Amino acid sequence: MLDPLCIQTCIETIGDCDIAWHDVRYHYEPPLDSSKCQPYPSLLETLHLNSEQITAQSFSALALWERQNASGFSFVAVGLFRTALLQNLRFYATIESEDALFGMILFAKAKQIKIIPNALYLYRLHTDSTSTHGESIGVFRTTYPPTMLPLVQAFKYDGYLIKHYNFAYSCAHICLGLLEFISTLEDKSLKNKLIAFLQVRAIYAFGGTTFSADPRNIRSLLKPLEPYMQLVSKRAKLAYFMPKTFLFLQAFKRIFKNSKG
User: Fold this and answer.
1) Taking Cα atoms as reference points, which of 40, 42, 48, 45 lies closest to residue 66?
2) Fewest CB atoms less than 10 Å from the CB: which of 10, 14, 167, 219?
3) CA-based nearest residue to 6, from 27, 21, 17
4) CA pair distance 195, 192, nearest whole angstrom
């Protein structure tokens, strides 16, 4: 939910910049308890900036990402941007983390970004969201959109498996979208940063091959991502390159576990 002053503040701040990026305030809904959750740092804390610095200058996406020192990035409903940045850029409506690919490409296109320290957006954290914020307390979604029905059926309403398989599928599409965008870039430093983001998402994309079912055929999406497997686990590599061997070892592991039980 936007603060009533959000649009006015962003318009007054953006000036000649391409993006105005403001902070977020988080609201925890029961059974989530803010006192038992790790607090989110402020935007200035995340970027290691102070009020004087953001007043005096604007920043490139690369400069902000280096300050943030994060393994990924997303951006939605936390600022104002010029529509000229969009061109053919759109949200993937059927994936989780649809703001990740959108945000990375949007910021990569921007020349200058202005930071607003005010928390002008209220983010509701609740257990029935697509992000499944209740996982830490063992609570998962109870309802799913029709597009997720194949996952619900394949994993027999197991909220944990549905969530993590859906995230793996989403990461595969995020990686492919990043790969396509990276091929259009000439800036080597920006390219390298986006490749680093891609390599982290590839961990989860290839992890999709370790599930007992593959209702969205993640495996068929992964071939173009093979050069970016540097951070992918040995387990996921085995499942991807040697699926029959992986399944045999999984079956053997289950038999061994049951015999001990």
Assistant:
1) 48
2) 219
3) 21
4) 5
- Give, in order, the Cα–Cα distances in Å from 185 to each of 85, 181, 188: 15, 7, 8
**Tokens representing residue 1 in the block:** 């939910």
The rounded distance, in Å, linking the Cα atoms of 250 and 210 is 10
Q: Where are the beta strands (DSSP E) in 15-112?
A: 19-28, 79-81
Nearest by Cα to 10 from 147, 128, 121: 121
Residue 211 CB partners (closer than 8 Å, separation 6+):
155, 161, 164, 165, 168
Task: Please check whether residue 215 is in contact with residue 169, taking contact to mean a CB–CB distance below 8 angstroms.
Answer: no
Assigned token pair, 201? 């998402």
Sign of CA dihedral 89, 144, 163, 27: positive
Find how far residue 116's CA is from the centre of its chain.
Answer: 22
* Three-state secondary structure call for residue 149: helix
Distance, in Å, from the CA atom of 68 to the CA atom of 79, rounded to the nearest integer, reads: 17
Helices 234-241, 188-207: crossing angle, 10 deg rounding: 70
pLDDT in tens, the chain (261 residues): 889 999 999 999 999 999 999 999 988 888 888 777 778 899 999 999 999 999 999 999 999 999 998 888 988 789 999 999 998 888 877 788 888 999 999 999 999 999 999 999 998 887 777 676 777 778 888 888 898 999 999 999 999 999 999 999 999 999 999 999 999 999 999 999 999 999 999 999 999 999 999 999 999 999 999 999 999 999 999 999 999 999 999 988 888 777 765
